Amino acid sequence: MTDAADELARRGPSGTEIADWIRAQIRNSRLVPGQRLVEVDIIRQTGGSRFKVREAFQRLAAEGLVDIEEYRGASVREASMEEVRQLYRARAALEGLCAADFTLHASEADKQKLQEIEQEMENCVDSGASERFGQLNHTWHTLLMRGASNNVIEGLVKRLNTPVHHLLFETFYRSDRLREAIADHRAILDAVMCGDAPGAEAAMRRHVENGHRFLSELDRAMHYRE
């Protein structure tokens, strides 16, 4: 049992906390697309009640992370590449707007923090710390959205950004992709620090589109090998 699961078991988790725990298992490839979510296993691992586990399943189903079928129960949802393409298109538009709003409305402290996180991400690339890079990347994008002061867009992007499909590709955070992401981030930051809102929006759109392009290339390579 993980430390996170131990903590949940000690105090009796809510449906939201169980959903967060399941979501983390998906992000860390411990639960993969198509895999059944067995209630008794999750109850044992989290210490939650059957009612709270089912509440968590419903939350995750609403996010598009879980499928619930009559007589078969819940399973981690599989996404087609066409659906992934549509999700990335929506993300590009929404995160682009956030980048523009961040440029115009974020505090100097938030802009400085964005630069500091970016520097740490660059250090991760140099040291090969891809897992830490992924964590920082999430923090970087979250800070940018929150600094834009648009709660509606932040909520929408969270629903679009759950990386189920990434789990199919262990190499999503390989070194060439990390360096490309860093170059994209620098372009966004340069526009932000210059007060160029349209430039920041355009650079963010390119960044998200580059992520989709990379995933598509990996998908084609996997199918070619098959």
TrEMBL record:
One of its GO terms (molecular function) is DNA-binding transcription factor activity. It comes from Croceibacterium atlanticum. This is HTH-type transcriptional regulator LutR. PROSITE patterns: HTH_GNTR. The keyword Transcription regulation applies. SMART domains: FCD (SM00895), HTH_GNTR (SM00345). It holds the Pfam family GntR. Gene3D superfamilies: GntR ligand-binding domain-like (1.20.120.530), Winged helix-like DNA-binding domain superfamily/Winged helix DNA-binding domain (1.10.10.10). Transmembrane segments: none annotated. InterPro entries: GntR_C, TF_FadR/GntR_C, Tscrpt_reg_HTH_GntR, WH-like_DNA-bd_sf, WH_DNA-bd_sf. Keywords: DNA-binding, Transcription, Transcription regulation.
